[in-house]
């Protein structure tokens, strides 16, 4: 027979009809039930399963709260820093690590997934505030067949990425310019997803159980492997989270999963039939996704099912760079919530249990791929509009990074919905962020590869003190390393070390460099023709000038700038047109109600026909005026669309 506590709990939760099914279950067995066991007791409806799940967690929390506190816990270990989003978990009495192999190099010995035991890591381990990892994808057979070469080398020993950029002198001699970047981890194409997890998200999971907020986001051009890298990370993280939650001190913790996408400038719930959402700030300047649906899960299979559902609902499309390109920013969030214990006498009838408190959160952000102008001008208008909105939000992210890098008083996090969501990733003492920069090895993508590496390097600089940061903001590469290479190649060819050059550069020149960098973000130059062979070395580019075709490139760049301004105008005009149309519909509904009232009055005996005619004439004038205003806005928008189409064809013709 179940205890009175369980029976009362079933009654309070509206599950009294299932009481006979649990008659032979002991309290210990009841508290150990998994969601997969509920069906054997007749609990098959999703709402009933969620009620039973919350009841078991509440009773377990109540049982735990009635036990004497262990001697290892501090009396003030639980601190409420924020009414809605800040309960902090006490440090565990025993330190944990996520796998028995985590003390080894994960590149050399990947840890099998599954989350077995939880041994202890060194107590002083704490991941840095921002960690930057670069991952190179392998070159495909199709890319080799079309003449692409692998121009990226990863030196795993010193975590350096080397990019060989082909350039052309004035005399049309081809040479290579080498760029080197050093990061926290540099991973080549042979590194497994498990090793990526151990180096990136694994340490973040520990911070969740030490009061943390964590974020992991993938950045890179379309087709560089962001989705491939991000997809297994939430599943693997959930396995380790459930391993922690199996410990006695975490039995009152729930894992809640949610997922939404930012498509264009709109937000959709990927786990609730793509319901439209709003991103707002509450009174404490916390970003809140209004209406987002969360699901409580208690095993890895449940997480997998939600990930599959979100992937199915995510917006994808075909571009010239990728046949199955993600056209939205996808954000999956794992929230650890502490369930309030059940009072000794249970809840009174009609009294609802307090909302669970968030005690830890991790976000997995799969950013949409950035598109070069050459990759979008040959697509249809919808794809071009998507690409413009994607690049606009990514540019807003880069501007936030620049502002943080320069210690600006104002950081424009409100510049886009994406930066509003990522705000907590960069600010706050408890924030921990991992950026995975995905790069393509292809020679045709070398410009975007360099852009990705430069901005990854800027993110890396954020965690340094201002005095320790590289002058000028972006580190263009480890030039000191290549100075040695150039000296070995021959006398007189070695460039001056980068730090010295940067210190000698005046402030005006630095600002010009930043302006050129901003321009390269928005209007990258067209892809170069494939080279038959590479020539030259690290120092071979001294004195080289621009190649032929500069006039054509300049004309294309000017048109591309005009096109970019036009796309921004179209995106803004689209929002205004839709909002105006919606407002007119509401006015039409009000006018229709007035017409119905007028018809009812004219049918009454003794009604004045003159009044009817006068009122009807006024209503028709209102409707006519609204239609004319809407038609005028629509005509203006159509004219801009025609202009964009013509301009897009012109730019595409010049670049091809």
TrEMBL record:
List all membrane-crossing ranges: none
Source taxon at top rank: Eukaryota
Q: Name one GO cellular component term.
A: microtubule
Q: Where is the Kinesin motor domain?
A: 129-462
UniProt feature coiled coil, ranges = 582-647
A biological process (GO) of this protein is: regulation of cell wall organization or biogenesis
Q: Name a Pfam family for this protein.
A: Kinesin
Query: Matching InterPro entries, A to Z?
Result: Kinesin-like_fam, Kinesin_motor_CS, Kinesin_motor_dom, Kinesin_motor_dom_sf, P-loop_NTPase
Main location group: cytoplasm
Q: Where does ATP bind?
A: 220-227
Molecular function terms, GO-annotated? ATP binding; microtubule binding; microtubule motor activity
Swiss-Prot/TrEMBL keywords: ATP-binding, Coiled coil, Cytoplasm, Cytoskeleton, Microtubule, Motor protein, Nucleotide-binding
Q: What are the boundaries of the region Disordered?
A: 99-129, 488-552
Where composition is biased (Gly residues), the residues are: 534-552
**Compositionally biased tracts (Basic and acidic residues):** 499-521
Task: Report the locations given in the UniProt record.
Answer: Cytoplasm, Cytoskeleton
- In which family does this protein belong, per the annotation? Belongs to the TRAFAC class myosin-kinesin ATPase superfamily. Kinesin family. KIN-13 subfamily.
Checking PANTHER family in the record gives:
KINESIN-LIKE PROTEIN, KINESIN-RELATED PROTEIN 6
**Protein name, entry field:** Kinesin-like protein
Natural source organism: Chlamydomonas incerta
């Amino acid at each position: 027979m179940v205890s009175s506590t369980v029976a009362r709990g079933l009654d309070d939760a509206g599950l009294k009809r299932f009481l006979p099914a649990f008659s032979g279950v002991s309290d210990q067995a009841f508290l150990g039930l998994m969601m997969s066991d509920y069906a054997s007791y007749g609990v098959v409806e999703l709402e009933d399963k969620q009620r039973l799940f919350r009841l078991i967690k509440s009773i377990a929390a109540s049982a735990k709260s009635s036990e004497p506190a262990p001697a290892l816990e501090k009396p003030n270990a639980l601190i409420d820093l924020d009414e809605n989003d800040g309960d902090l978990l006490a440090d565990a009495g025993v330190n944990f690590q996520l796998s028995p192999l985590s003390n080894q190099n994960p590149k050399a010995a990947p840890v099998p997934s599954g989350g077995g035991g939880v041994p202890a890591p060194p107590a002083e381990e704490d991941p840095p505030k921002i960690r930057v990892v670069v991952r190179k994808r392998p070159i495909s057979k199709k890319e080799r067949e079309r003449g692409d070469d692998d121009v990226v080398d990863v030196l795993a020993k010193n975590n350096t990425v080397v990019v060989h950029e082909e350039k052309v002198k004035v005399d049309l001699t081809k040479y290579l310019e080498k760029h080197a970047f050093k990061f926290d981890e540099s991973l080549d194409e042979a590194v497994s997803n498990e090793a990526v997890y151990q180096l990136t998200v694994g340490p973040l999971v520990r911070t969740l159980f030490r009061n943390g907020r964590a974020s992991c986001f993938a950045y890179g051009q379309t087709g560089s492997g962001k989705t491939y890298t991000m997809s297994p990370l939430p599943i693997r993280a959930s396995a380790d989270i459930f391993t922690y939650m199996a410990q006695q001190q975490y039995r009152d913790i729930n894992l809640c999963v949610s997922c939404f996408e930012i498509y264009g400038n709109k937000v959709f719930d990927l786990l609730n039939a793509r319901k439209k959402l709003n991103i707002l700030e509450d009174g404490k300047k916390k970003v809140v996704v209004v209406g987002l649906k969360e699901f409580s899960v208690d095993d890895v299979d449940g997480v997998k099912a939600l990930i599959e559902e979100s992937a199915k609902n995510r917006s994808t499309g075909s571009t010239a760079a990728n046949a199955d390109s993600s056209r939205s920013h996808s954000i999956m969030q794992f929230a650890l919530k502490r369930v309030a214990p059940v009072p000794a006498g249970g809840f009174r009838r009609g009294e609802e249990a307090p909302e669970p408190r968030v005690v830890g959160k991790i976000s997995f952000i799969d950013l949409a791929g950035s598109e070069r102008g050459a990759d979008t001008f040959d697509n249809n208008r919808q794809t071009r509009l998507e690409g413009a909105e994607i690049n606009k939000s990514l540019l807003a992210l880069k501007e936030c990074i620049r502002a943080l890098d320069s210690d600006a008083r104002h950081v424009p996090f409100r510049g886009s919905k994406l930066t509003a969501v990522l705000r907590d990733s960069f600010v706050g003492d408890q924030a921990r962020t991992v950026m995975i920069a995905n790069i393509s090895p292809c020679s045709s993508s070398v410009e975007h590869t360099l852009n990705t590496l430069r901005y990854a390097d800027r993110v890396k600089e954020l965690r340094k003190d201002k005095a320790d940061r590289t002058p000028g903001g972006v580190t263009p590469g480890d030039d000191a390393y290549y100075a040695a290479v150039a000296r070995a190649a021959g006398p007189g060819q070695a460039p001056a070390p980068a730090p010295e050059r940067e210190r000698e550069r005046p402030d005006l020149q630095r600002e010009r460099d930043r302006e050129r960098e901003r321009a390269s973000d928005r209007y990258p130059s067209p892809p170069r023709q494939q080279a038959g062979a590479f020539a030259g070395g690290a120092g071979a580019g001294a004195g080289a000038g621009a190649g032929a075709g500069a006039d054509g490139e300049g004309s294309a760049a000017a048109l591309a700038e005009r096109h970019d301004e036009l796309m921004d105008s179209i995106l803004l005009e689209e929002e205004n047109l839709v909002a105006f149309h919606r407002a007119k519909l509401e006015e039409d509904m009000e006018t229709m109600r007035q017409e119905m009232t007028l018809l009812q009055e004219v049918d009454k005996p003794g009604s004045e026909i003159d009044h009817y005619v006068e009122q009807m004439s006024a209503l028709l004038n209102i409707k006519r005026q609204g239609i004319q205003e809407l038609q005028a806005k629509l005509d203006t928008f159509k004219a801009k669309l025609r202009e964009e189409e013509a301009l897009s064809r012109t730019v595409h013709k010049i670049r091809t």
